[in-house]
Design goal:
Blueprint (H helix, E strand, L loop, with lengths): L1 H19 L3 E4 L1 H6 L3 H37 L5 H54 L4 E4 L14 H6 L3 H8 L2
Parallel strand pairs: 1-2
Length: 174
């Protein structure tokens, strides 16, 4: 038991000593992306893609709405079998609309990944290079994907010396 306690204390001491020497940088990748000239071209390409798909979706949605309105108008005069058949057809069309939306979302994400992939890869190379130059052990993202701040406290010295965002922007614009 004494050996176990001594080992725990020793490991705790080594962990504290190692963490005291740890250097952590941080950055905001979204700010980097927002400052790149390629961002506007990428946004235009994605918006063109969405516009073309949106008009296609609107056509399908209008056809569905017309079919639904026609069914609702004619429903009192339809046989039970015909009513059931047309309801099934409406459900199929509704499902097709949902599947179309999901496909468009997947295609958009794929196009975004294709367009941003090389930029993100370059950003990662620059981050790794800066981390090596500054002897950083870790580089954290300043905010979560939802935009919430990840870092709760940053000293003034840390803001000045450990924020890599402007350095990454400068290198990406070279």
């Amino acid at each position: 038991m004494k050996y176990f306690t001594t080992t725990i204390i020793l490991l705790f001491g080594l962990t504290v000593a190692a963490s005291a020497q740890m250097r952590v940088g941080y950055m905001d990748p979204q700010v980097v992306l927002d400052n790149l000239p390629e961002k506007e071209a990428i946004e235009r390409q994605l918006n063109r893609f969405l516009d073309s798909r949106e008009s296609e979706f609107e056509e399908k949605a209008i056809a569905f709405q017309n079919m639904l309105a026609r069914f609702q108008q004619e429903a009192p005069n339809l046989s039970e079998e015909e009513s059931r058949r047309r309801q099934q057809e409406l459900q199929t069309r509704d499902r097709e609309l949902e599947e179309f939306q999901m496909r468009v979302q997947q295609e958009l994400e794929q196009r975004q990944a294709e367009l941003l992939g090389p930029i993100l890869q370059e950003m990662n190379i620059i981050i790794e290079s800066l981390a090596a130059e500054l002897n950083l052990d870790y580089v954290l993202n300043e905010a979560t994907s939802e935009g919430e701040m990840f870092l709760l406290f940053i000293s003034d010295d840390g803001r000045e010396n450990l924020n890599l965002t402007d350095k990454v922007i400068a290198r990406m614009l070279q």
